Amino acid sequence: MEKIVVVVEEVEVAITALKWALHNILRCGDVVTLLHVYPTQRSKSKKKLRRLRLKGFQLALSFREICNAFPNTKTEIVVTEGDEKGGESPPS
């Protein structure tokens, strides 16, 4: 069993990458991880962070719909806060 990680973004190339991975890499028993990283906010407004997290999760759900077209595809969704350099922000 392998884990395939695909970045979830609001750009067509992200959907293309997911479809490519499903057609060319996915094997029976593999898990597709749909990863969305929303930007770190300086204001730390809980309402704004919640909204960004929810938007990322909704976007990841739309990517999961694409995965569901492939039989026996296992998916997991990870939505996290990160910086512009790709580092994950420390928990608040």
UniProtKB/TrEMBL annotation:
It comes from the Eukaryota. Residues 2-83 form the UspA domain. SUPFAM superfamilies: Adenine nucleotide alpha hydrolases-like (SSF52402). It holds the Pfam family Usp. InterPro entries: Rossmann-like_a/b/a_fold, UspA. This is Universal stress protein 11. It comes from Salvia miltiorrhiza.
